[in-house]
Amino acid sequence: MKRLLKILTGRFFAFIVLTLLQLALILAILSNLLERVDLYFSITYVLSGITVFYILSREENPAYKMIWVILLLAVPVFSVPFYIIFGNKRDSKKVARQVALYNQYVRNDDAAEWSSHAREVRERLRSYSRSYSRQSDYILNLTRSCVYDRTSASYYPTGESAFTAILEDMRKATRFILIETFIIDFGYLWDSVLSVLREKVQQRVEVYLLYDDVGTIKNLPSHYQRVLSETGIKAAVFNRLRAHLNPRLNYRDHRKLIIIDGDIGYTGGINIADEYINRKIRFGHWKDTAVRLHGDAVISMTMMFFQQWGFTTKEYIDIHEFSPRTNEPGDGFIQPFGDSPLDTYNIAENAYIQMINHANNYLWLTTPYLILDTQMITALTLASESGVDVRIITPGIPDKWYVHAVSRSHYGQLIRSGVKIYEYTPGFIHAKMFVSDDRAAIVGTTNMDYRSFYLHFECGVAFFNSSVVHQVRNDIQKILSVSRQITEKMVDRTPLVNRFVRNLLKLFSPVL
Known about the structure:
Layout: H1 2-8, H2 11-33, H3 37-57, H4 62-74, H5 76-87, H6 93-107, H7 110-113, H8 116-128, H9 130-143, E1 151-156, H10 159-171, E2 176-181, H11 188-202, E3 206-212, H12 213-216, H13 224-230, E4 234-238, E5 252-253, E6 257-260, E7 264-268, E8 285-287, E9 290-295, H14 298-313, E10 333-339, H15 347-358, E11 362-366, H16 374-385, E12 389-395, H17 401-409, H18 411-416, E13 420-424, E14 427-429, E15 432-436, E16 440-444, H19 450-455, E17 456-464, H20 467-481, E18 483-486, H21 488-492, H22 496-507
Parallel strand pairs: 2-3, 3-4, 5-17, 8-14, 11-12, 12-13
Antiparallel strand pairs: 1-9, 2-6, 6-7, 7-9, 10-17, 11-15, 13-18, 15-16, 16-17
Helix pairs in contact: 3-4, 3-5, 4-5, 6-14, 8-9, 9-15, 10-11, 15-16, 17-22
């Protein structure tokens, strides 16, 4: 009863109620404006036809377009206003101004891109592998994030080991600390982080904290930003959830970045909550990973942070004051990159697909969600059918049953093409990792689902000829040893009702 009362009095429940009331009011007004119901139906059918034509003419993911086309043709009375409010991604002039500010950081990084050393690093990567050089150039051309060499890298196979290192580095900060996260929850981990941040503020270290409103809405009070600001922390909340009917509500900041003094940067799957370090058990053992960069490459992570900060606060900050002051002996080629829903480029998904296409011997990946579009399914099955050892690890204990049902709906097609599917039996695997041929890896925040690929701000790091590649491979080998392989017989034994539910949810997966 106490938990139910908390839900009913929370901001998220109030948002749902107010949004439904607005939708009901819109439908009522439309019905009352028209003297006859049949006239309303006729007009919505005409509008649905126009909307379908408009959707088909847009450059969007085919699966996303198809589900809206089906809904508009099947139930136009309700789908037309829903699409106008939630489905249409055309941004307002206000958002356009924010995007322009977001892109300012990209344009101002030209000096780094065209420096003689940056060109020399690109040439050496091209000599190492023309395939990975093309992948790196794709990221560079669309994000302006360079590939670096004067950077050391460390890999952390658990959230516990990562946050031990993070707290140690934060305590040594002398200039600034930047934190961007999707989730913050009260508990041991946040108390530990906040204690260090307060201590650093007293030492006149600048602290910036950016967190997503939806990711924290069930955990933090609405006024928590003000509480943090009163301690001297510069805090901002990304895309506050308000009960206004706007497709921009879908944009969420799913990035995880911690940057210390411009020299050290962390990213990976870990948020700031106790389940990520297994002090709170929710879905069995929580498996997550992170990477630490030290050196030149951290400037790209800093750039990503201030892109989001400017988009959220409308404040432009000169990032040159936050540049690295040290560099390290190189650990291969390292390229941090970001992805956003503000453009038409699916950078994270395409980086994954390029790695799949370039694989010659093996391609292993871990993901908490396996909600695939046609391009990704084609890439995975083609690689497997060409003799590449493709392995995918998903959770054994899911956090969302309906998302896991959609993940399992893909198993049959993938397994029949030769892809090996495993479920992590100890619990929930939240790590997002790709590794291929002992030569390349990606570790970051991007799930293999529509929300991460098309609606979220995400980030990751591509590693070529780096020690991190081998560490990721070795860690995935350990994960495989405690995971259950899913066979075609197991898929075929799925009850008919479960298959129907999975396929129904799969149909709507682009808008889940």
